[in-house]
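Can anyone check this?
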Amino acid sequence: MTVLMPVLMILVVGGIFALVITMMVRAQRNRARGVQERAAAIRLAQERGYGYQQVTYGLIDGVCGMAPLPVSGHNLRAEHYITGEFRGRGFRCFEYVTGTLDVHDGPGRNQPVFWTVFAVAAPGPGPELVVRRPQALDGMTQRGRVVQLGVPEFDEAFRVITDDESFARDALAGDVAPFLTAQPQAVRDFPVRLHNSELITWRRGRLSPQDFDERLGYLCDVLDRIPPRVWSAV
């Protein structure tokens, strides 16, 4: 036993070091891949004639109110801000960084977290409306109240949060609820938020070339299914 204990300790410590090194290498590869995908997305945007600004300040203040953006903000910084038209609708997308980029390595370092936000122009303004997967504290939200549409599959997969239940039902209960229910990725990756005159979605990570057709196309698909009369009634 006295011989085995040191051997076991060496194996455990060696395993921990191997795991740490593997995680560091994987993280570095993911960062490098993310930077490459962002560069490819910028090239694609420029090829399509979209507008591009590497850094902007204040242009995203109006979409505050829900994570990953702060509840409110002034002169917020957005990176890789892209604007254009997609399927006949104006859009914008950008990267937003949470956390603090520390130039010094070491324990407790606060790593930056990259988010990509996509917004497509809606036919008109509407009340705040959020559709996303369920979360533990949904019943305590301060950003509106949880509304159930009475569609079992949809109500189980999604939470609808709004301060205008009538608008939510008119906008979602027709073609939108079946469309979202039939999209498995919608529950996992594609929350939507109607804010003023934009329909917004977001994800963690840097911009990628697939985003333009996938994320913007998804927002347009949702807007296509909202009855036109909803906008005129607001």
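Reply from J.R.: I decoded it. The helical segments are 4-47, 152-157, 165-172, 176-181, 184-189, 210-224, 228-233.
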